[in-house]
């Protein structure tokens, strides 16, 4: 199956629309402090605490003993019995909201212009990155072809030298045998004809023997490496010093479906202002024919680096832990940007989530046709942070 990205934007938390009737009343907390939960119950996470006497807006009271409230930029659930009515500033608040709506409209127009400019900038930077990657790939291919040609020339030279040495040795052996036979004949009482060599001396034999094929054994570059087996969701020990990042206030996720032909290790990078500022926030091993979720991802824009293959092994390079697949290994940097920034709408807050499907074809490739799309980064680049 060809590797591809499927993106699903999900509204994980959507609060009901706040009507004018509902916003006409304002409430004060009567308890010592007001605990704001992520859902209508004490079993949900506490996402904020509001001091006593702080004014909060009630969005809806249709959740039994619980009401949804808004305080600053936080929406959540509180016990209704802890709220006391206070409508003294409702009219002023409505006027303030109208002014705020106009302000937001102006800010949205500015933000859109900035976003369009930023998108154009990122597109140009990504095009430059791809051009550099293509040039590096062509350079590696040229270097590999040159090394192969040199190796073939050296092997041919060694074969020629071996054949020449063998022919000289055989000629010398024959010459000595002839001399010994002639000497025996001269010293014998029985007349005999001296024995002559039936093989021309070296350099004149048209049917000179050729050397036997040289047996070349392939060097195992993974000698001394340790084979490791991980369950889906684990972080390989070669990345154990890496510190992941979480935002438990965001109930979002990246869902990864892995096919039957490969295991994968996926690294999720948060994009900075420049490529040097990009930061890896998660590293996860996922076995073939399984599904894994990466949850509670901090807001921002992301891309992934993916290692495909079988037989994960680890070692130490340059004093640092290092890991890679040793069978059918391919390494890829995803081209798509995953935007995990929450989106505010007139109906509430939409929290984006995505689904990513990964697999190799049965021939061990990603199925990009000419293969130029395969392996667009090196194992060293995958291991870097």
TrEMBL record:
Residues 1-21 form the signal peptide. Residues 181-208 are annotated as: Disordered. It holds the Pfam family SH3_3. Keywords: Signal. It comes from the Bacteria. Residues 24-87 form the SH3b domain. Residues 184-208 have a biased composition (Polar residues). This is SH3 domain-containing protein. It comes from Aquimarina hainanensis.
